[in-house]
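Write out this protein's structure.
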Amino acid sequence: MASTETTNGSSTGPEAESAAQKLLAKHKEAHPVEVEEVVDEEDIIHPPPSATFSPKDTTESDSPTMSDIAKGKKKVDDAAPSAQKKKAELDLADQDAFPSLGKPSTAFQSTWGAGKANGAKGPNTNGTSATSKPASSAPAYKGPAPVNIPGRHVERISLAPQQIAPRTQLKKPLQEILLDINKRSKANVKAFSGANGNMVFEGTGKPEDVRQALKEIVNQIGTKQSVKVPIPASVRPHIIGRQGATIQAISKQTGAKIQIPKQEDLAAPIDEDDDVMIDVIIEGDALGAEMARREIQRIVSERTANSSLKMRDIPIEYYPFIAGHENSPIHNYDEQALKIQVPHYHTWRGQAPHKDRFAPQPSMPIQISGDREAANDARQAINKFVKDELSKHTAAPTQGMERGRHQFIVGDRGSSAEEFFQKTGCAIVKPPAGDDSDELYIIGPPENIQAGINYAMDLAGKVQSAHFDISKPHNSVRGGGAPHARNMARYFEQRNALQELERLHDSTIVLPADGSTSAEVYAQSYQNAVKTRQEIMNLISAHPPSRFHPMPVDPFFHQQLRQREAPKIRREHGVQIVFPDGHVEQPEILLVYEAPGSPSEYAIPRESPSDADKRQHEQAIQEARKYLEALISSQPAIVSRDVEAQAKYHDKVRKYVDHEQKDLGQGQFPVQLLFGGPTTQRSPSSFSLRGPDNQVTNLDSKLRAFLEQEARDEVERNFTTSFDYPQKFANFLIGKRGENINKLRDDYDVEIQVKDGKVELKGPERKCADCKKDVLAQLRKFEDETTHVIKVKKDYHRDLIGAKGAQVNRLQDRYGVRVNFPRSERPAGDDDATEGSVRNYRQQAPDEVIIKGPKKGADEAREELLNLLQWTMDNSFSGSISIQQSQLPQLIGTQGREIEQLRLATGCQIDTPRGDADKDGRVEIKLKGTKKQVEDAKKILLEKSKTFDETVTKNVEIDRRFHKSLIGPMGANIRKIVVDAGGPDDNRIIAGLVRFPKQGQEENANAIRVQGSKSMVDKIIAALNAQVKDQADQVTQTLEVPTAKHRLLIGRGGESRRNLESKFNVSLDIPRQGATGPAATQIKVTGLPSDVEKCKGHIEELVQDQEGETVEVPRKHHNTISDNGQFFRKLRNDLKVTVDHGGAQPPPRGAAGGAKARGRNVNGGSAPLITDEPDSSAHSWELVDNTDTYTGTDGDSPIPWILRGNRDNVAKAKSQLERALSEASKPSWTGYLILPDAKAHRLIIGPGGSQINSIRQQTGTKVQVPKNGDEGEAVEIVGSKEGCEEARDIILDIVAGGAGAGAGVRRD
C-alpha cells in the first residue's frame, strides 16, 4: 500500500525530497500522529509546511533531526536539493512495506530496536560484550504525511486486487459506494486504475474528512485481513493498558479487532531473565489491520528496544571456541552496543564430557543483551558457527593424570583456560574438586589434540609432589590407624580445614579415598610441598582418636538432626556432627570434639592434646552420644509403607502431606515421602511413607482416604457452575500477577475463569461449592471495602508516616486497612500498564493519601489520621535564623549541651545545618513547633546570635611562668577576674572564654586567647596584665618552720593555707609530707615585698605562740575522755589547740561492756523480736560499770596529752581537760537500752534535739541515740548509776506516751 499527496498539481519524484519533507518525516517519527489526530489546515497561527512523502526513498538517516532545522541550527536549503515533484502512492500490496498484508511470500518477521550501528569488529573473551551488525535497511513506513495547502488537501491509497472484495460480495457497485460516500462526506473521493492492476482512490478536502472517507471506502470494499504479530510477553500489559484502555483505544481508532492471549495461558519462562514470545491476532480491513499492527509495534519498540537472550541449547564444551576462536562470530560485534557473555568452562559440572557427543547444560547459558534485532542476529550467527564448524570438527579424548596436578595445569595455580587455548588450539576440561576421577579432557580439532596433550604434560611435569601416610601417627590405637585416618579425612573435608594451608603454601592437598590412607601434596616447589606436609602432620597429631566417635543413626533422622539438634550439641557440648554427603545413603554419623561455644570462633588446633584434654574429649563425646541415643530411642520404630497412586496425583500428595505435617510438635520427626523413578526400584505409580510407626499409620489412612476422594473427584471433573461477579472486582479476585486466583485453584483443585461479569468454576461439585463460598466471601469483603482520599500537603507526609513507618504501621495494624502515601520516585506511567493488579484506582497525586479497607476501619483510620494531621499542622510552624558558620559550635556546645538545653527550654525542634555555608559564610538553622515555641526559640537564638556577632577574640602574650598563678588554685583567680569583668560564674564557660595554652605546647606557648564582648575582653586583658606586672615585682623568701607545725599552716583540707594566701595576697609553697633533707622545713613565700614581709611576720608569730603544755592522763581514762575523737575536734575547732601524744601509742579502743549487753533483756532474756508488738515493757536494758571496761594491766600508767596553740587558748584547753579527767575518775556507768521499735528514736531526740538535750541536763548524763535507726541498736546512756536509770525511765515514758509526752515525766 502506498500513499500519495499532491499540492496544486505538482509532484515530487521518489528520487529526491525537499527539506520540508525531511523535516516532516523526522517530526512524524518523534511524534507519531494517529488517524484522528491530524493537523487543522485552518490553524493560521501554527500552519505546518507543505510536504510530500515517499516511503521507499525515505530513511531515518536521510534527513537532519528536527532540532537542527526547526530550531534554525541548520539551513533548510542545506538539508537536501529540491527536485521535480512526483506523486507517490500508498500501496497496500507492497510486501516490503507491509509484509503481513495481502498474500505475502514469507511469514512476517517482527523486529524491534531503535539503534543502528556499524558492525565494528573487536576482540571478545569470556564475559565480554559485543555489538550488533547494522539492522535491516528496508525502509520503515511512517504513515501518510499531512499536506496543508490553503483550500486543498489530497491523499491517495492504493489497493491490490486481492485486497478488494469480489463484486458479488459488495452490497453496491463501486461507483454507487463512491457516490454515497461523497454525498455524506465533506471530502471528494475519486477512483482510477493504477500500476499492476491496483485500484487508486484519491480524496480531496480537509485532512480529517479525507481520511475518514478513505477509511470508509476500505471498510466497504476491502477484504478482511488477519495479521499475527509476535510480541514479548512482558509487553502484554502495556498493550492492554489499565483496565484495557490502550487496546480499546487502538481498536476504536483503527476499527480492527485485537486478540491477546490470557495471562494464565502464557508459558512460564525458564528464569526471570527470559521473555516468552506470544502472538497477537489482528483482524480487520487492510487499512485498519495495518494501522493497528503499526501501533502495537510502536508500543513494543518503546518498551523493548533492548533484549536479553539466553542460549541454553549449545553444548558447554564449545564455549572456549565461541569465546576465543578467531572465526567466532562474536568478534563481529562491537562491545559498546551488544554484550555477549560466554561462561568460563574448564571444570565439568554434573557430568563429564562424552567422547563422541556433547550435551547442553541449560544452567550455564550464553547471555546476549543489547539491541533486540542485533541480539537475534548474533544468536543465529553463533548457532550457525556451532553447526557448521564446531560440531563437525571437534573431538574430546581423555588423558589420565594425578588429581593433585590438575590445579597446576589450568586454574588458579596454573595456566588460564584462554592461554591454554591460544597456545594449543584446544580446550582442557578437568573434573571438579569433589570428584575422584583423574582424567583430563582435551577438546579440539583432531589435528590439535596431541599438541594439547603435550602442553598439559609439560605443565604437569613442573609440579613437585610429596606422599605420606596419615594413619601412621595413630597406628598403635586399637583397630589400627586406617579407620581413624578415614574419620580425619572426612572431618577435614567437611570443615575445609586444608584450604588455608593450600593458600598459604600455594599447594594442592589430595586426601585419601576408597579405603586408602595415603595423602598427596603437590606444589610448584619442593620446599612448599614439604612445608605443607609438615603442617598436615601437625593437624593429624592434634586430632587423636579421642576426638572422634562414629555413631550409627538411621538416615531418616539425619536431616532433622542437622537442622535442630546439631547446632545445640555443638554449642553446649562442643561436639561437631559430620553427616554423610547428601547423595550417600549411609547410617553412620561422626562425632568430633572441638570446643563449646560458637563454631565461627573455633580455631583448628595444631598441637597434640594432653592426657587431661583427651579425657575431656571422650567425656564430651560420651555426653553428646547419650543425648542423641535418648532422643532417638524416644521415637517410635521407623517403618516404611508403600502406597499405590497414579503419577498424576503425586503433586497433590506432596501438598497434602506438607499441609498435614506443618504443625508438628517439638521433638517430632516428619514422615518422609519417597517417590519412584528411574533411579529407584520403586514403581513410578507408587510411593513410600517412611517415619515413626504411629505417624506413618495415621498419615497412611488419611492418604488413602484422600486418594479415594481424588478418584471420585476425577469422575466429577467436568462439573461446571457459574455465578455473577461484579466486573469492577475482577482484578481483586485475580490478584497481583494472578496470585489470588492461582491460590484458589490450588486450594480447591478447580478451574476458575473470570470474564464478562461472571465466574465459571469447573471441577468436582463439592470443591466447586467450597470454592464458590470462598469467592463470595471475598466479594463481600471487597464490597465492604471503602477508599478514602485525603488531601495532605507533601510537607506533612514525613511526620504522618513516622520514623521507619511507625505511624502508618500502627494505623494499619489497629484498623486492618492499607494506608498508601504517594511515592515520589515512582515513574509516571508504570502503573498504567499493570493488568491484574488490585491497584485499579486512578494515578495517586503527590498530595493524596489513600486509605483502603473495611468501611468501619477505614472511617476510624481516616478520623485518626485527620486528627494527627491537625496536630501536626498545629505543631508545624516553622522558622529559620541565619548565623555565621563559625558561631555554630558555640551555639551547639560541647556534645550538643547548649542546643539541647534550648530545645528543652522552648520545646521547639531545632535542626542545625550540616552542609557548607553560603558565599557570605552564613548557615541557616531551621525551627519547627508551635507558634509560641518557634517564637521563643527564635528570640533566644537572635539574642545569642547578636552576642556572637559582638564577640571579639584577642590574644595576649604572657610568659607561661605566670599562667599558673593567673589561673589560681582550682581556677579561683581567673574566675574572679572574669566575674569582675562582667562575665559568667561558670567554670565550663570561663574555660571557653579564657583559654590558656596546653601543657607542653611549643607553638604559641605564651599566647592566652580571650573571647567575649569587647568591653569584657578588654577588662580581662587589663586585669591579666596588671596581675602579671605585680607578679613581675614579686619576690620569694624562705622561712624555716618545723615539720610538726606545717599542719598549722595547711589546716583541714588546706583551709588555713588558702586563708593566708588570700589575706596577704601571696603564694605559699609548703613541702610535701615525707620530704627529707634541708628542704623539708623550708616554706617559700612569694608575693610583693611588703605582702611577703607581713605574711612572714604572721607565720612567725603563729609558730612562736604555739607553746606546748603536757597533761598526764591515765591510760584507762584515755578513750573515755577522747570520746572517739570528739574532745580533740572540740579543742581544735573552738580554741585552735591541737593535741598530740609525743610519739606515744594511745591505748586501743576496747570493746565496751555494752557489746556484751546488746541483745540481752534486763531479766536475762533475749532482745525483743521485730515481729513483737511495740510494747514499752518489751525492752532490753543493761547497766555496765565503766571501771571494768579497760582490760589492760597498765591502766594507771599515764599517756602524755601535749596541748599546742596560743598561750591563752592552751590554758583554757588544759582546764577543760582537767575537768574531763576529774569526771572520768568518778564512778561511771553505761546503760544500753534497746527499744522494740527503732522508730521511737525520733521521739527521744525531739524537734531540733530539744528532747534529748532536756534529758541530758536533767539527769547529768550523756545520751547517744543510734544514727542509722536499725533494729536492735542500743541507746547509750553514760553517767552515774542513778542518772542512767533516771534517763532510762524518762525515755521509756516518752516512748509510752508518744510524741506528746514531755521530758521529765516520771513513772510511778
